[in-house]
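Ops channel
N.P.: pipeline sanity check, posting one input/output pair.
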């Protein structure tokens, strides 16, 4: 099944740039992070995926060969339905749980070209006796981070508000490391990535892996 997308290159470039601006807002505080541009993201889904949905809706995975600006956009974060983002209630950003992201229904694999698929299909099958998963996340980049991790952890306050919509966390500063003007930067200046530890453990669980054996974090 084939279709012609009624969008020109300049229009697609503008749409992708608009979506990426909400993904990389350079906000200094959590409250300054703009809402994800669901309207433009759905417009891209409607143009590229909706016309041929009947051909892929029953599949579990999609193989995509994007070009141009689309190569800079994770297509799995496109919403599959038109939706207006509801207001936050108790937890900051929890309203995004209601968005029907493409990744919720399909695994999306990006290929550099169609010919790559032919090459991959010609390769011999892997050894099924291998372990299903190994994951690395939230490493310590310096001694200070390791020492801080060894201290007793304080209970994380995920939602604290005086009244609906008045979140204390909105004023929380976002720590950034300015390396954009450097030709290179030593690894020890990088901040920790604590969220990746939970992401890795969730992936291990989905793959039926042993988190005590197959997940490596911290040291």
């Amino acid at each position: 099944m084939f279709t012609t997308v009624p969008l020109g290159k300049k229009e697609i470039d503008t749409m992708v740039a608009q979506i990426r601006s909400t993904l990389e807002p350079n906000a200094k505080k959590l409250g300054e992070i703009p809402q994800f541009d669901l309207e433009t993201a759905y417009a891209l889904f409607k143009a590229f995926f909706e016309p041929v949905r009947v051909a892929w809706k029953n599949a579990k995975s999609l193989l995509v060969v994007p070009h141009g600006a689309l190569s800079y956009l994770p297509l799995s974060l496109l919403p599959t339905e038109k939706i207006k983002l509801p207001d936050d209630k108790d937890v900051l950003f929890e309203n995004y749980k209601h968005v029907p992201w493409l990744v919720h229904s399909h695994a999306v694999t990006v290929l550099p070209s169609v010919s790559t698929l032919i090459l991959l299909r010609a390769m011999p099958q892997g050894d099924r006796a291998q372990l299903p998963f190994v994951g690395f996340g939230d490493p310590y980049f310096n001694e200070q981070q390791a020492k801080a991790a060894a201290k007793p952890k304080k209970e994380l306050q995920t939602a604290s508000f005086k009244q609906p919509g008045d979140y204390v966390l909105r004023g929380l500063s976002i720590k950034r490391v300015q390396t954009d003007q450097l030709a290179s930067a030593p690894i020890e200046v990088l901040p920790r990535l604590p969220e990746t530890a939970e992401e890795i453990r969730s992936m291990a669980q989905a793959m039926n892996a042993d988190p005590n054996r197959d997940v490596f974090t911290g040291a």
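N.P.: looks fine end to end. Confidence is low (pLDDT under 50) at residues 156-167.
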